[in-house]
Each structure stands twice: as structure tokens, then as C-alpha cells.
Amino acid sequence: MPPQQQRQPLRRPRKGSGMGMKWAMVAAVIVAFALAALPPFLQQRQLARESDRLSAELEQVRAERRQLEKEKEWLASDAYVEQVARQQLGLVKPGEMMVVRTRPGNALKKDTQHAQEIRD
Predict the structure, then answer these.
(1) Inter-helix orientation angle 78-87/19-75, to 10°
(2) How far is residue 61's CA from residue 59's CA, in Å, rounded to a whole number?
(3) Which of 1, 3, 39, 98 would you label with 26, given CA atoms 20 to 30 Å apart?
(4) Measured between alpha carbons, how far apart are the two ends of the chain, in Å?
(5) From the record, what ranges are coiled-coil (predicted)?
(6) Is the Cβ–Cβ distance between 107 and 115 less than 8 Å?
(7) CB 98 within 8 A of CB 92
(8) pLDDT tens-digit profile of 4-63?
(9) Spatial distance between the Cα atoms of 40 and 24, rounded to a whole number of angstroms
């Protein structure tokens, strides 16, 4: 070998042109963004479900309130007062006659018992 020529160390040829490393970096960045975006996305879904549940509950409460308002109006009406007076207190309007239905045989027993209590 001539003295002017120096031996150069042997180099291994490069496999590919570094494209594999670039794709790996791109994939890593995409995965990092996906992982960063996942918690807010899951929280948004949970909040949407909670909002739907609360909307349904609100509609149910509103329906119950409408029903209670109707009941309140009924309880404050003259018709309700009259119904309670007739059914629970046994009252009648002037000129009306109260009719009490009893089972056959019971009315006579009660009348005779009542008459005996009065005599005693």
C-alpha cells in the first residue's frame, strides 16, 4: 500500500434514510395529543349525561308542580268544601233530605239500641 493512502474505517451502511424515525416521532406526537385531549373529552361526555338527567328530572318536577297546583285549586274550591261537608260531616243544604243507605236488618237493630240508650 502506498503511504499516501490511509485506510478509512469501515462504516456500516445506513438502513433506510431515517424515515422510520420520523414516522415514530410523528406517531408519538399524535399519541401525546390524543392522551392530552382524552380527559376533557370524557369530562364533556359525563357533563352531557348529567345535563340530560337533570333536564329529565326538572321536567318531572314541573309536571308534579302542575298537578299540585290543580289539586290546590280543587281544595280551595266551593265544590270541594261542599263535598267534604256532605261526605264527612253529613251536612245537607236547606230543603234537601239526607238519605242513608243501610243493610237490611242493621237499621232496626241500631234504632232499638239507640232508643234503649236514651231510656237508660
Answers:
(1) 60
(2) 5
(3) 39
(4) 154
(5) 44-78
(6) no
(7) yes
(8) 667 776 776 566 567 788 889 999 999 999 888 889 999 999 999 999 999 999 999 999
(9) 26
Residue that the C-alpha cell 261537608 belongs to: 85
Task: Quote the pLDDT of residue 14.
Answer: 61
Nearest CA to 96 out of 106, 85, 80 is that of 85
